[in-house]
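Much of our argument rests on the idea that a fold can be written as discrete symbols. The amino acid sequence and the backbone structure tokens for this protein are reproduced below:

___
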Amino acid sequence: MSVQENLKYTKDHEWVKIEGDTATVGITAFAQGELGDIVYVEIETEGESLEKEEVFGSVEAVKTVSDLFMPLSGEIIEFNSNLEANPELVNSDPYGEGWMIKLKISNPSEVDDLLDAAGYVALIG
């Protein structure tokens, strides 16, 4: 199972890459593996400010639909528009081309609540 050391993680199986006051967010390799083939990514919250753990969108797989939760409070400043035509990027490259949103972090202290790689590995067993 692919877990990257340079990222932070949530209990909801999202990864977070922090760069200054911006965070890039996607779902983990574990999550996409559990969901199966991703057929649609819906994110209609670009430009909105949301609180940590609020729903920012959903991902639809062949067998289920799953909500996506904000890992940190902030404003969604970008959606990966490549996912509109190619939602399978979430399966083939979850930590790269399959990223979902970028957000401007409004409460940097929340970063301390995220899991590191070892903590996430312990969570998924």
